[in-house]
């Protein structure tokens, strides 16, 4: 498990994956800038104050609030765009690390879109739940790791498995190795909790779970 995580982290910054990261980051930043401009325009258009200094103070407070809001949105937005590149990432992993194995099959476009939307929703719900639990001292971080560990491990592992088997078999295979998949999800959640580094979480998680799947599938054939 930790060997696979170490390998995945080292690969994230290699050239083929950097190309995917820059594309994903570009799309993410573009969306965040649009949201920022929309928020500022919304406040300016609907709030009229009698004194210039109040407008300045409101603008500053709005900017600070927007930073926190956009910080929360980074993970789901990057996950949304990363989902579009998951098969590309998986193809690179297979070609470089498992050239002798039967290659996986990219998901059909319709299924890929569904998986992307589903995964983005999972990230949003997981982080919203964890955000609400910030009000409960001593529980918030535990909840963050448990919720995201389960959800992220499930989604990324099933993606890797579905490249080699039908969805129903992929789910059954994941459930049969639930403990290992959950531990892998905790590793992903740990990276998601680190600011800035959480931008590479979707790429890392895809690479990581490809390695985990390959190891479990190999053991199952012995």
Which percent bin holds the helix content? Answer: over 70%
**How big is the Rg?**
20 Å
- What's the order of the H and E elements? HHHHHHHHH
Mean pLDDT: 79
What does the model show?
With 222 residues, this protein is an all-alpha fold. 82% of the residues lie in helices and 0% in strands. The chain contains 9 helices and no strands. The protein is globular, with a radius of gyration of 20 Å.
Looking at this protein, list some descriptive labels.
single chain, 222 residues, mainly alpha, 9 helices
Question: TL;DR?
Answer:
This protein has helices at 2-12, 15-46, 52-84, 86-97, 109-132, 140-162, 167-176, 178-192, 201-221. The protein contains nine helices and no strands.
Helices and strands in order:
Blueprint: H1 2-12, H2 15-46, H3 52-84, H4 86-97, H5 109-132, H6 140-162, H7 167-176, H8 178-192, H9 201-221
């Amino acid at each position: 498990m930790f060997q696979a995580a170490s390998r995945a982290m080292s690969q994230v910054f290699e050239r083929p994956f950097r190309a995917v990261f820059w594309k994903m980051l570009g799309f993410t930043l573009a969306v965040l800038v649009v949201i920022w401009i929309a928020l500022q325009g919304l406040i300016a258009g609907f709030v009229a104050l009698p004194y210039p200094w109040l407008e300045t103070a409101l603008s500053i407070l709005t900017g600070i609030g927007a930073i926190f809001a956009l910080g929360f949105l980074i993970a789901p937005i990057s996950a949304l765009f990363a989902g579009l590149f998951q098969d590309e990432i998986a193809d690179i992993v297979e070609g470089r690390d498992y050239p002798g194995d039967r290659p996986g099959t990219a998901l059909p476009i319709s299924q890929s879109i569904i998986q992307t939307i589903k995964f983005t929703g999972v990230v949003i719900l997981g982080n919203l739940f964890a955000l609400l639990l910030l009000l409960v001292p001593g529980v918030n971080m535990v909840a963050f790791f448990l919720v995201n560990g389960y959800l992220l491990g499930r989604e990324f592992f099933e993606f890797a498995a579905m490249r080699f088997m039908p969805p129903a078999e992929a789910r059954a295979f994941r459930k049969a190795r639930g403990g290992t998949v959950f531990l892998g999800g905790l590793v992903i959640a740990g990276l998601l909790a680190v600011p800035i580094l959480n931008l590479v979480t979707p790429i890392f998680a895809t690479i990581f779970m490809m390695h985990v799947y390959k190891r479990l599938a190999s053991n199952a054939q012995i």
